[in-house]
Amino acid sequence: MRLGIEVSNITKKYNGDPILRNCSFSFKTPGVYILTGPNGCGKSTFLRISSLIEPPDSGMVSFFSDGNPVPADLQLRRRITLVLPKVGVFNTTVFKNIAYGLKIRGIHRREVEEKVNRALEFVRLSHKKDQNGLTLSSGETQRLGIARALVIEPEILFLDEPTASVDQKNSLIIEEIILTMKKENGPTVIMTTHDQGQAKRLADTLLVIRDGVLSAGGDQK
Amino acid sequence: MDSIIESFSKALSLILSLNRELWGIILLSIEVSGTALVAATILGLPVSALLGFKKFPLRGMIITALNTFMGLPPVVVGLLIYLLLSRSGPLGFLALLYTPTAMIIAQTILAFPIVASLSHSAIVSVDPIIRQASMTLGATPFQISLAIIREARYGIISAVIAGLGRVMAEVGAILIVGGNIAGFTRVMTTTIAMETDKGNFELALALGIILLMISLLINLALYFIQKRGVEGVNR
Q: What is the ipTM of this complex?
């Protein structure tokens, strides 16, 4: 059964300033959730807390599968993943960057090769696989981040502003990747963007954060 | 001027003639310094990782001490080891004074702070985003540490090479604890010092040329390793 998230009354402050105020939402059904709002409104913080990278000051993030709670341990962390706006590329080839998540899971070499090649093809980076990951353009780097996340077959994929610092061509490629994932019943995608047009193009469910308060912007299906 | 040129030409012919004594000294130097470097690396890397990844009391003091000990005067190290290993010293029963083992201990002590401190700097210089990226991909804390060490690899290799440079060129400590015994503890640097005293410049120069060549090779290796690391980051 697909993993779901229940975010309850999350509050977060940085240097005393509230970033998130009592945010609650239930990501029950698969699909693409787009979190939008102006810069600095708390979108990224919400994503980091929901993906267990950062703890909230108060409130709770709980995961469930088939209605049953799932403990927040390493096993759960390996079923979700977050692609950060600054991807964090390892100083090695594109192939090895993407293979990392599989290698730390002890996946067999042949399977790693197959999956990485598939992921490379999916994000259209096959021709760059032997190149050092640090030599990619910002758009390609984002695609590398997405491939590195997708290759581990997460049930929930968090994307933090994946098109914020890329050119239009790469932005469209990333949108196409997300739409293909949606069509192929890929992972639940929870993504932040400040691009309203993109939000409308991609979202099954639109969420808005304004002044740290989360509100549902409506079902877009 | 003529005597210098003559000494040089004799030194070169000594090198080319594959003089047995000369090569014995070179091989012992490499053996002593190589073993000391391996020991310093085995001890230094875990210390650098511990200092890089864990926060604990006295951590700052240990880092400061390591940085200070990078400039340890070799003669002081030699003197301390001598006092420890001399017959009347606390470790005199081991009978290690004037043996290659004593020289290895002295050089390990000299190389350890360099390897540990520079490796620590390389580890803490890794972009924090690497830690987060590994975490988001489901790495365990140990796997995250390994990923960071892998990112710091060029800096760590540079640290090890810097340690090698330190021990290969060192003379004070090994002269005190090794005693410069012919065929047993005589290495390149101690031979150069002794032969210069005796006015036997050919052998001293021959060893000096070889030491310079080794130093050049070490620095070339360091240059290419650092260049590769920087190119990776900047490309």
A: 0.91
